[in-house]
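Quiz preparation item.
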């Protein structure tokens, strides 16, 4: 499940850090991430003796798990990356069971991180439209881009 994401990260390491590509290392990391994904998608509140409302003493500790989408929905995750004057972005689309449907990555040339994030979101949304997905949840890590897309903030 996570193999395309690790291919993307390995590609960025080659492009941005001029490091060599190790297919075996990439595969091992993908297998580890897939195992972790499987565990987290099969966790429920019953998996924890303290219940869902547990708040540990350590302020940086939190439990992350994947909550399934409503049946029929797909989820689009997008992200952008800048290193020096090089930029790239990509997206991944999964169905409500977490199965990979589509991925894409692009070299955006020279740009700002804000523009790259928006381009990655745009390319992901265009792919969901072309694939005729109608019920889409869009997620990214740039709060400014999300706020502008939701019309809750102005374009900076």
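Solution:
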């Amino acid at each position: 499940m996570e193999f395309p994401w690790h291919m993307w990260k390995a590609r960025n390491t080659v492009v941005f850090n001029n490091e060599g590509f190790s297919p075996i290392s990439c595969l091992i990391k993908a297998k580890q991430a897939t195992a972790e994904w499987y565990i987290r998608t099969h966790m429920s509140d019953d998996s924890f003796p303290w219940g869902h409302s547990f708040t540990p003493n350590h302020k940086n500790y939190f439990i992350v798990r994947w909550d399934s989408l409503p049946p029929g929905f797909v989820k689009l995750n997008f992200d952008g990356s800048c290193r020096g004057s090089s930029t790239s972005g990509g997206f991944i689309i999964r169905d409500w069971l977490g199965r990979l449907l589509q991925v894409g990555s692009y070299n955006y040339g020279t740009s700002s991180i804000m523009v790259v994030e928006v381009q990655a979101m745009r390319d992901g949304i265009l792919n969901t439209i072309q694939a005729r997905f109608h019920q889409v949840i869009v997620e990214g890590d740039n709060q400014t881009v999300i706020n502008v897309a939701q019309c809750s903030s102005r374009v900076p």
